[in-house]
Structure formats: C-alpha cells, structure tokens
Hints:
heterodimer; A: alpha/beta; 10 helices; 10 strands; 37% helix; B: Rossmann fold; GMP Synthetase, Chain A, domain 3; 3 domains; 22 helices
Amino acid sequence: MNPRPDHSQLVAPDDGIARGDVLLDVRNVSLSFGGVKAITDISLNVLKGEIRAIIGPNGAGKTSMLNVINGFYTPQVGTIIFRRKERCSMKPHEAVGQGIARTFQNVALFKGMSTLDNIMAGRSVMMKRNIGWQMLWRGPALKEEIEHREKVEEIIDFLEIQHIRRTPVGKLPYGLQKRVELGRALAMEPSLLLLDEPMAGMNLEEKEDMSRFILDVNQQRGTTIALIEHDMGVVMDLSDRVVVLDYGKKIADGPPDEVKNNQDVIDAYLGVPH
Amino acid sequence: MAQNHASTDTLAKYLLLNAERFRGRPAMRFKDYGIWQSWTWEEQLEEVRALALGLQTLGLRRGDKVAVIGANRPRLYWSFAAIQSLGAIPVPLYADAVAEEMAYVLNHAEARFALVEDQEQVDKVLSVSPEVPILTDIIYDEPRGLKDYDHTHLHAYSAVREAGRQRLAVEDGVLDAWHQEIARGKGDEISVILYTSGTTGRPKGVMLSHDNFVRSALNGNAFDNLDENETTIAYLPLAWVGDHLFSYAQSYTAGFCVACPESAETVNEDRREIAPTYFFAPPRVFETMLTSIMVRMEDAGRLKKGMFDYFLAHAAKVGERILNREQVGLRDRVKYALGEFMVYGPLKNRMGFSRMRVGYTAGEAIGPELFSFYRSLGLNLKQLYGQTEATVYITAQADGKIRPDTVGLPSPEVEIRIAETGEVMYRSPGVFVGYYKNEEATRDTKTPDGWVHTGDAGFFDADGQLKIIDRAKDVGKLASGDLFAPKYIENTLKFFPEIKEAVAFGHGREFCGAFVNIDLAAVGNWAERNNIAYASYQELAGHPRVYETIAAHVNEANRRLAREPLMAASQIRRFLILHKELDADDGELTRTQKVRRNFIAERYGELIEALYDGSAEKFVETEVTYEDGRKGVIRATVRIADAVVHEAPSQAIREAAE
C-alpha cells in the first residue's frame, strides 16, 4: 500500500567488521613527488563507524593523505590495510570498487547535468548491464535503472534536495553543489566516505546544514567518515578523533579535546619557526 | 460495516461514510521519493484507525489536547481525524513558531501530547518541555536524526501505528469500541482549537466545534459545486483555519482528494503536476507567479514574446467578459480561442492551473490588475473574506458576480450587519464557540445573541457586495460626522506608481488632508526623460512639475472617492509632498513598511497645522538618522497645494448637510 519504508534501507554495507574495529590502517606511509616529501612516515587508523578528521595548516599533506587512502596515489614506503586486506597499487576506479567514495575540495560535478543525473552517475559503478542493454533501456536494464533510481531518490530525500532534482547543478549555489556532491558519494554506498573540505566557502547556515547531514550520514547509515576541514569549530564538534599533520608529519592524534591542548598543534597553527 | 450514518455531524463519521461511498477513490496523495503516492478512502480509514488505536495505548483520552506541528503531510492530516475520533482535540501550531511561542501555546492549550513532523520540531518541543509540565509524550513522523534520542516519552509515528494494528489483530472488540467512540462524538463538541497569531498581545485559542466545520464545509461545497472529483493541493500552514477547512473538512465532507507537496520548496512544481481543480492562495502567491512569468518572458525569443504580448492584450480586452458570460462578438471570441490554444493554455499549464475550476484569494486585498490578469486568462479566481472566528466564510464572490474591489456577497447562511461605528459584524453557523480560557475576550468579540465583531470597517456597495475599508479601530470621523477611513484613502493614492507612501489626516478635522511621498524610482525616471535636473530627493519632491503630476493624481483619487457615497466626504482638499522619504530607521514606518500614523502626526505636527491653516508653504527642520546611526537635520520649505474636489453623489451631500 504505502511504499514508503519507515527507515532508510541505505546503510553502509556489511563488510564483516564490527563497529569500533579498525577499518583502515595506514602504517608508516611516506609519499614524495621527486624531491618534495608530501608525507613522511605517517601511521594512522580509521575505526569503523567513527568520524575521523585530518587537520593541519596549508601544505601539511592532508589532501595527499586522502589521495593515498583512496588509492589515487601509491606511497613509496609503507602499507595500507583496508578491510583487513593489504592494498596493492590500484587505479581510482578500482578504489571505488573497494568501497571508498569521496568528495573534492573544488566541487567536481557534471555542471550541465541535473542533480538527479549526477547522483545517478554515482550508481553507475554498480550497474551490471553493459552499454548495449543500457542503450536498449528495456527489460533487465530498465529494471536495474528503476532499482538504482529508488536508491537515488532515498538520497535526495535524505539530503533534502527534492526541489533541485531537475536543476542543472551548474546553476546551483555553491552550498547546494557541495550537497549534491555528497549525494553522489553516498550513492556509491561506501564503507568509507572521504570528504575533502566539505564546508569550504560556505556561510554559517550552510555549514550548520552540512554538519547535520554529515552527522546523520554517520549515525543513521553507520557510514565511516574521514574528513579534512579547516573550520576548527566544525572539526572539534563533529569528529570522534582528530589527527594533525604539519609539513607531512603527524604531530598529534587523539580525541578533539586532547588535540586542542597539544602544544605542538598550537605551535603549528601559530607558526613557530621550525 | 453495518454502521448507521444517518447523522454525520463529525468528520470522523464522514471518514467511515467515505470509506464506504468512495471506497476506491483517492483521498490523499503525497509526493515522496519523487513519485506521487496515493491512498484511497479505504486506506485512509485504515491509517487513521491504526493511529487512533495506537494513540489509545499511549493513554490518549476524550477531551485531551494534542498539539500537531509540522508541514502538510498526510500523516499529520490523519492525526486530526484520529485524535477527533477518540473525542480528543487537535491543536495545530505554526511550524515556524519559535520555541518560546510554542511553549506559550502548549501551556495555554494544556497539550498532553505533541505529534510533530521531524527532528527540528522534536528539538523545539523538548527544549520547552520543562516549562510545559502537562506534556507527557511526543510522537514524530520523520525518524531521521532521532535514533539516539531517549525514547521513553518519544515515539515514532510508525511504532504507534503498528501498535494500533497489533491491537486490531489480537484484541477482541477493538473495532467496535472505536466505532462507539466515534458515535459518541457530537456536533456541538469542540473539534479543534486554532491559535490566531495576534498582532498585538498573546495569541488566542479559537475553539471551533464539529458543527462549525461540517456546516461551513457543506455550505462551501454547495456554493462552489465541489464534489468527490476535485483535487486540491495542501501547502498553507496547518494551524491556519483556511487549510483546516479546505484541505481537511471540505475534503472529508465532499470526498475529494488532497495532494501534499514533496517539500515547501517544490510546491510550484508539484502544483503543475497535480493541476488542482480547487485552489487557494494569498495574493502574494499570485503576484510571485506573475512576476516569474514576466521575467522569463523577457528572455523569450521575439516571436514568442510578440505572440505573448499580442494575445495577452486581447485577453485583457475580452477575457473577463467572456468569463462573466457577457456579450462578446464572434471575431473576438475566435481570436480568444486561438489565444487559448497558443498562449493562455500553455501559460495556465505552466502555473498548474490547467484544471482549476475554482480559485480563491484572501487574506489581504489583491491588486485589481493582478486579479484581472488571472481572470482574463479564463481562470475563475474569486475573492473571499473570512476569519478564524467564522470558520473562514463571511463573504465570497459568486460565479459571474466578481469585481476586484469587493469581497463579495454574504456566504450561505451568513448574516452581516454594519455596526454604528462602521464595523462589520456577522452571525453564521460557523461562529466560534469561544476563546479557550479567555471569557473576557469572548465577551468582547461575540455578543450574547451570536453576532461577532470582525474588527474591520466596511460597507455594502450598490450591488450589495461588501467592501472592506480598514481596521475598525483606525477609522475615525470628520468634524462633519462623516466616516474617515485613512487606509482606504491612502491606498487610493498609492494606486499611482509615482506615489510611494501616503498618510491621510482628517479625524476630528474639517476636511481630509494628505502627506505624499513620491517614488524616487518612478519619478526619477520621469524626470530623466523630461530633462529635469535634480540633486536629491528633497529637490525632486519640491519641483513644481512634480507637484503638477501629483496634483493630477490627487484629483483622480478624489474622483474615485467621490463615487463612493461613504467616502465622498473625505476627498483630499489639501496635500503636500513630504521633503523626506518616510523611513523605518526614523521610526516613521514599521519594519514591515507600514505607516505609523500617530508617530508621523507627532513628528510633523507643524506640517499638519499648515495643511489646515491655509498657509501656502511652511519651513520645517526635521531630524534624521543616517544608516550609520549619526543624526542630521533636514531643512526645507514645503509647499502645500490645494486639490480639486468633486461633486459627491446626492446621498452623501444630504448626509454632509445634516
């Protein structure tokens, strides 16, 4: 009768790892581009179900770290264990198959496509029918499309973006574009969601909205989140644990309160000469 | 069901009746997950029943009050029926009210339960719950974000409904007991308490009975021939009496389908998809719609734009006459039919009015041009005058008897009289029972024999249509004893685009005088075209040619006033153009841009005297506040001009002579 489910069916996939166990373990990783050392001997882990923040001044190696985590960069030294499996070098689309989705510091959406199509694009990695079927758009391909569309509609409902469903994203204000990008990442039903500065360039109200969505994604759907963010207030309120990088090195790691009072962190942010 | 529905005096009884007579017809639609979900009357009954039985397990009893807070969603509408079926009383609140306002209403209404939409509302209610000791349980519809809340006194709607379904499945006699509860409900009992958002003082709880709603709804249905085939879209606040009548009571009594939009932001889109046959909107909705169309047409290609302009001009010429079934030549009719095909039809489709049979606007006066625009497209848009205390209907315009400047004839079964003071009073089956826990206010508003003061001043025109002129407390008398309605005069002046604001004086005076503020954009534009140089507002306002233009407008306004027997005496004899713009920073306007008449009278006392002592000009110094808070002084010599007065209809002359 009423097809509306009372609870979202979209939850993080069960990967056999219990809440609170290590989902991702980065061990002694170093990454350099020619002579430039982006990351030096960093170890950190992400526990299942937590919100993990990576912070640090400009050029500290945060985005490099995210790129290492999602497999876009392969570090020269160190090991990465994701879902109990050691990772070898792989391409980004293989990384997606692993269950890691991300958003970007500068919004990276298909500007000419609608919100709906952008989020549908996030599901494309899961579509099984080949291009021939897709073009026919009959039978199994249609059925598959409907299934995916249902999931996408749940995300649209979840992020409260019904009113822009058919609007080309290029026309949307920045805050909404960020939300669409989050939607596309969620569409992949990731076990680990990486957010690269989700609040950058937002006003206070947009930040509050975004914070609520991040918390809801984490609590309601049980998605593990690792995020980079410059707004300290947001970081301290949202995250369960914070790791601080400076010049490619890890200088602190722990709960927000602890990190806030760490002398090295204060020095790094206030700019004590090295 | 072998129930006897001989006396359907409550909406819960109508629900049982509809589940039989309209069984498989749609009762409710809701756009969710991008798709319109529908419920038939049978399914709606099932939903309401499950919720009611579930609410019983939480301890809801006859006479309890339940606050209902949220947007237009099926579940909140079902809660009205479920609560009423148990003899309890729903109290819908404005969803955008801040927590403190909510605390006042929850306390005053003694709400034991709150049924709310989502986390936002739960948070608000929880934050004030220490101040509202009587409130025990909160039921929420949308579970998002509420997973980790303490659920001892917090319940998911779905859980309550499930509990109800469970009872129905396992307990014996539950269904009969529920039917008996419904049968116990009487028409004269309180069905709902609606809090009016009073502009002054605390909101008052208007108690309305089942009879009020059932009879008003039936009258409304008959007046506009509404039946089970209508569709309407519910998007106005639940706490507003109009929504309660249009989207709930009328739907239950007529059996038509109510569509709930996906979210507040998607209403326009959703309306286009649903294409309601019965629609209600305050004037500003029609205004925004027109503006957005005009803006888009500016960007249209030349051919389209030309076609649009051509056919709209034709519609303006004959559209309304065709709608009113007046005589129109064949040529014009054919051209109009072509326009319908090429322009009006697609335009109405765009606005979601393709199927609209009856549309109402109310709440405030609608601009005559705006009103005529929609009517010329063939839309049966009408005006309605009503208030919460009347269960909406006081007057409404009947098909074919529609004019933009009146609010229509008395609605069915409504008696209206104009009090000595000019105040409109009415008596009808919709008249409220009283203000909840406020005997004094009830006595002030409602006479022992059932007449209610509207607080508005008005009069019947020659056709017997009611015209509302002002709030009764603002209406004064000229020294001659004639009615003086400042807002009516000011609105007549403000009709001209060059006049931005006007303030009329005349209470206790010999004649009516006015201050005028010119519209800098409109007059500035005119000055540029006519090569009139000016350096400031003050200079432009004092320009002789500007005075000429305004004098012509005042003359025209007087001509219009002269046509109304009651208004003829308050034609403007003298006016002046104020040397500065009225400004909220100086306290001359409210923040919502309404004129603060008393404050202005005090501040410009000298100028008012100059209006009445016959002087031709007056030197004044006025203190002003700049945006950064600094104060300054404007000095000016303001010229006072005489206006042409028109001959009034004979009746008014007689009255003035007495």
